[in-house]
Amino acid sequence: MRMLTFAGRNVKEILRDPLTVLFGLGFPLILLLLLSAIQANIPVSLFEIQSLAPGITVFGLSFITLFSAAILAKDRSSSLLQRLYTTPLTPVDFILGYTLPILPMALAQTALCYAAALLLGLDLTVDILLAILLNLPASLLFISLGLLFGSILNEKQVGGICGALLTNLTAWMSGIWFDLELVGGVFQRVAHALPFYHAVELARATLTGQYGDILPHLWWVAGYAIACTAAAILLFLRQMGRQ
Amino acid sequence: MYAIDMLNLTKRYGRTLAVDGLTLRVKEGELLSLLGVNGAGKTTTVKMLSCLTRPTGGDACLLGKSICRDPAAVKSLIAVSPQETAVAPGLTAKENLALICGVHGFSKEKRNQRIAELTGLLDLGGILEKRAGKLSGGWQRRLSIAMALVSEPQILFLDEPTLGLDVLARSDLWEVIRALRGKVTVILTTHYMEEAEALSDRVAIMKDGRLLVCDTPQGIKTAAGTDDFEQAFISTVKGVIS
């Protein structure tokens, strides 16, 4: 109950920030529309809707990192957390309170992207539902990255690291905008060692019904999600102890 | 029983001794001000007493509960209004109060009752539906104190509550703090001499983590041989240097 009260507060704080809604929901949709328009004029297989839409859903999640990092960094800088640390809220309440409200937002963002993709010609199949569901590990990964950065960075740094660096890293290393094989070499190996490429390939495999290709990518994403969540919890507890 | 009983309370950050063997007792209902120049150890003392940081030595009992052995029990007795504004900016003033009621596990009835009581006590009626982030500094501080009072604490820590406020907002807040005297034990940290003199039953002056003196404002002035409390503070602090 205490955790839900705190989680409810976090939902209100996030949704009442118009920039959050604009970037979180609007920006991925704009990209989807823009690239679909380009695809209509200059056909590129990478930008075909069944390939593009899963990539955009993963790219959109990088903004979710910004939300979770920003709210935590803001709470730390305003001393609100210090006040709440003197209440009966437990560390588990804090971590769940920051994570749980953002998960439905991530799912809603993914669902909205696929809804827009349907209007742009994506076939309506049950695989869309599966793709939304299997975006959960990636959602958890991006949320935990936000908590991780929010625990150690201030508001301004969060904007730079999560708003610029992570979104670019996600874009370059995921194979959404260009085929990683075209670059090859170290770049491709690094991209394959990071979770972003696997998150996109997982979503693409799910959406196109290539179920056999799901698990190898799922392990990568789930592994990173678990590791990042554990790191986020440790860093959160560390900054809590430093209060 | 004392509201606060500190015995040799010590906090060390690496090689820095932030609080050095602080021994001090505060009676129930008393308003004690902690005074000192920057780095004196006031905020660290408050953080230890409010279980935000563990002492590296000594202990303190708040209404008989040890901050080292029973921090959960201590947390149920206290509330803190931190130095910086500690409100949720995107929530209305009412939602901020409801948030604190919720994290203390209050029922809906008790929540509404406490919000009504605090609205009356701190005259928050006019700003209840306004977003906290849009309020002036004075109103944010007032709301911050209301949030600290939600849980009906027996001990309240006010860390520089009027810092940066204009004269009128400060005067208003003094009235709020005066209204708490005798009902709640208040530990107030401040840099404003006139604030400490006007509000406190006793004043504790700290320097370099150590307690120099703890007496009534008049007692401190008498000991320093001056009628000016600020001069008495300066003499007390400099007296140790010379």
Outline the structure in words.
The complex is a heterodimer of chains A (243) and B (242). Chain A is an all-alpha fold. Chain A has helices at 2-15, 18-41, 49-77, 80-85, 91-99, 102-119, 127-133, 136-152, 155-173, 180-183, 185-193, 195-207, 214-242. Chain A contains 13 helices and no strands. Chain B is α/β, with parallel strands linked by helices and 242 residues long. Chain B has nine helices and ten strands. In chain B, β1 and β2 form a beta hairpin. Chain A binds chain B through residues 1-2, 4-6, 8-9, 12-13, 16-17, 74-75, 77-80, 82-89, 243, and chain B through 47, 50-53, 72, 75-76, 78-91, 95, 99-100, 102-105, 131, 144, 147-148, 151.
Subunit organisation of the chains:
heterodimer
* Tally of helical runs of chain B: 9
Q: What's the end-to-end separation of chain A, in Å?
A: 25 Å
Distance between the termini of chain B: 37 Å
Q: Proportion of β residues of chain B? A: 15-25%
Spans of chain B of at least 5 consecutive residues whose pLDDT stays below 50 are none
The whole-number mean of residue pLDDT values of chain A reads 89
- Unreliable spans of chain A are none
What general form of chain B does the structure show?
globular
Secondary structure blueprint with pairings:
The complex is a heterodimer of chains A (243) and B (242).
Chain A: H1 2-15, H2 18-41, H3 49-77, H4 80-85, H5 91-99, H6 102-119, H7 127-133, H8 136-152, H9 155-173, H10 180-183, H11 185-193, H12 195-207, H13 214-242
Chain B: E1 4-13, E2 16-26, E3 31-35, H1 42-49, E4 57-62, E5 65-66, H2 71-75, E6 78-81, H3 93-103, H4 108-121, H5 137-149, E7 155-159, H6 167-180, E8 185-189, H7 193-199, E9 202-207, E10 210-215, H8 217-224, H9 229-241
Parallel strand pairs in B: 3-8, 3-9, 6-7, 7-8
Antiparallel strand pairs in B: 1-2, 1-4, 4-5, 9-10
In short:
With 243 residues, chain A is mainly alpha-helical. Chain A has helices at residues 2-15, 18-41, 49-77, 80-85, 91-99, 102-119, 127-133, 136-152, 155-173, 180-183, 185-193, 195-207, 214-242. Chain B is an alpha/beta fold.
